[in-house]
Amino acid sequence: MGITRTWAERLAQLHTAGWAHADVQPTNTLITQAGAAEVIDYALACGPDNRPRLPYRGALTHTTAPETADAILSTPADTHIQVEPPADIWGLGASLFWCWTAHRPVPYEDESPRVDKLKAIAKAVTLPLDDVRPWAFTEFEKVIRACLAPTPEDRPSATDLVTLLATP
Predict the structure, then answer these.
(1) Tens digit of each residue's pLDDT (9 = 90 or more) over 117-165
(2) Is residue 74 a contact partner of residue 123, using CB atoms and an 8 Å limit?
(3) Which of 20, 42, 127, 157 has the most CB atoms within 10 Å of its CB?
(4) pTM of full prediction above 0.85
(5) What is the architecture, at CATH level 2, of domain 2-44+57-166?
């Protein structure tokens, strides 16, 4: 829970500054010897300005938020998709789900084309956590379920997660 809290703290700092990481995933998070999460690899980060940039068209498919998957599918390949903080929260929830259960949160075949994976993600239907969790862990499951809310406005902010995770 402490690692999850510090992961949310790092995202909260980024979001407060007007940025979204846009590639929240397990391999973009380092765990320090002190047991804290550090977020790395800001190459795809989406900021609050309109500077010229390469168009963002998604990152690691497995942790892509449904609204991002839908935007990728419904816009031309040269169109920039502005990722917002709720997509990072989905990525956090997807990462926690995946690391804890050894299953990606959205079911699809590994061999499927990326477009089919994005179509599955855009439906925002996840595997039932109760069916794949290694053991019951109510507090952790509450965080994962909140992060994986189908609609962005139903997800907690990173700051809300920090508060939730700080409460005993």
Answers:
(1) 999 999 999 999 999 999 999 999 999 999 999 999 999 999 999 999 9
(2) no
(3) 20
(4) yes
(5) Orthogonal Bundle (1.10)
